[in-house]
Amino acid sequence: MQHDAHYHNPAITHGTHHQPGAPFAPAMTPRRSVPGLALPTPSMQNQIHELAKTLPPPRKQNTACDACRSRKVKCNRLPGQEKCQHCLSKNYPCTHFVQQATSEKKRSSAVNRRPRNISSAGANVPPSTTPRYAPSSASSSECGPSTPSGNPQLPLMVRYGFCPPLTTSTPTPEVLTFIFAPPDQNEQSVFQAGLTRSPYDAWGELASKLDDENFRAEFALDLVEVFFQIVHTRLPLLNPEQFRSRLQLQSTTTVPSIPPLHPALVATVLAWGCKFSEHPLLIADRKRPGGQSLLAKTLIDRARDLAEALKVHRVPSSDHVVIALLIEPLQNQNPDDPNGFHGFWLTSATRHLLDLGINHKSVMANIQDPENRGTMIFAWWMTCLCDAYASAYYRRKPVLDDDDYDIDFYTADPIPDITDGAPTPSPREQLEFLGYYRAAHSLARTARMMSRQLWRPATDSDGVPFDNLCTFATALTEWRDHYLNAVGVPSNFAGEWDFVSAVSSCSSDATYHVMWIILFNALDDFGIKELNNAVASASDLTEIENVKRKVADEALHGALRIAGLAGVLTSNGYLRLDPAVMHISCILAGTLLARLGRPEVSNCIAGLKQYSYAYEEAGDQANEMNRLFQRVRNGDIELNHMVSIFPRGSSPASRSSHSPHTSNAMLVDEHRPNGSPSSAHPFATATGSFSKPAIYGQH
């Protein structure tokens, strides 16, 4: 498994416990000759030695630390280190309270089993030592959920209900006790010990209120509403009415008539709400350098811990599909982050959907509940699209292929016509009305085709075959002519747009244009195969250069376009409320503009800085982009195979005047039938035309 890879020790796997580079030397003890027993001959000793190397090591009982024990992973502590590898990577205290308690229990049992001296039994038996870890339950045979007043040195997973593990039927108030438990010691260390008055102080001056059950319930309800007003509009995987009806936040003595929500789903929704909420508790928590909330980051980790503990990534179910799809964009979006598990939850959701047979039309048609069927259809298409786009963004082959499914968008119940007085359609239905599904799926197929050809070892070593390059360029051009005018930012902009309409159109527009940037980067890194091997004729060279120039022009135009859209969204504060939909587009477009020394990169930098409100890594990405831009402005060349299009001393800004696209990204795209290069695009002066969502500035 991806997230457990760093616990694997090759030496243990192969049955060796010697230091690297040291010869294997099994312990030898002197033996006394026993009559009738022949000692092993040298050849037999060699055979035994070879056999010993293939046997697993002796099982070590009761040596795992508390954190590894709760996660059910191997506890690997290297010689000479005080902490195991897992606790080092997570900055956990690496305690062994459960091991100590078990040892104390065994010692106490051994004392009770010893033969007693009848005459002095009551006087000679020493009292048993009180274990440092004591279950809060009255039963000594099982470990019940503890309370915040328990031993603060215990890892959170041990203190709050993971012994025995939480189940999917655990009441939500008990789940909130774990989710809003005080921060771990590593978070408390940011404060001086003398100034810490409450275990919650690391989360700001108001966080101590989380110790009250009623406040936890009210705070959780606020975060749920933030989720449905901001995140649900972009990721409509839940039924808001159904979720609210099952969200039982107060403890009760009566048996609820409906089962509680999945604990990992509750934790994930609350973590999303923490990213964007303006609750006074979170405002106080963000009063620190950088402006990020430590509580928000902690809730992301706890949502992931709950999902792992409840085997969301292992057991196929509809709830687990939804949870995995919501966790993936929730966490750190930097693929180099060692704790981000980038792509892990998306892969888990894909595997679950295949195991459930959702890729078969016959299976989908047999799902009787319309709500469940609609959710699974949307989950499938979200997974399908994300898998394709992510493969292009992060240079890997997609998991799914075109022939892995036969369902279509009409498997769900027909959507009624919108008439006066009819109920407002859900965000998912709105997207269907506007044709985003069909357009996105068509572009996803092109992205999947590009990924399977570009990210191959043969392409890396030999270059991109010219016929493949022409196929990609033709497919992108056809998609633009057929779909962009319908799902992108329209040229006949009129009236005010809301948050959903603005971000949806801008993201669809940007997703198309970023494909040209990806193609440009591949050509710059790998080159064209026929040019690399010097097998192209003179006529072929001319044609190849023309196609290279077209890709460069489209990539530059796309980067400028994305920078313009990012500038509009940033000026309206929308990227502060965006669940990473435009994130990768800003990075790829801004990086290309920085490599070309274009000043329009400032829009992408500003957009990433606004993203850093919810995604901390975006601030570092903005700073790195600015450093790259400054290096290029000082004379560095950042191009490889595509340097012939932008040679040294040639200004990309001057070249763009000869491009079929205008250098101003905010002018009307000439691809649009009713646009003209001389008419200014309404976005150029419409930065105040978007209406901010109702949630903005209210929490």
From TrEMBL:
GO terms for molecular function: DNA binding; DNA-binding transcription factor activity, RNA polymerase II-specific; zinc ion binding. It comes from the Eukaryota. Residues 126-149, 650-663 have a biased composition (Low complexity). Pfam families: Fungal_trans, Zn_clus. Residues 1-41, 101-150, 648-699 are annotated as: Disordered. SMART domains: GAL4. CDD domains: fungal_TF_MHR, GAL4. Residues 64-96 form the Zn(2)-C6 fungal-type domain. One of its GO terms (biological process) is nitrogen catabolite activation of transcription from RNA polymerase II promoter. The keyword Nucleus applies. Keywords: Metal-binding, Nucleus. SUPFAM superfamilies: Zn2/Cys6 DNA-binding domain. GO terms for cellular component: nucleus. PANTHER family: GLUCOSE TRANSPORT TRANSCRIPTION REGULATOR RGT1-RELATED-RELATED, TRANSCRIPTIONAL ACTIVATOR PROTEIN DAL81. This is Zn(2)-C6 fungal-type domain-containing protein. It comes from Cyclocybe aegerita. The lineage of its organism: Eukaryota, Fungi, Dikarya, Basidiomycota, Agaricomycotina.
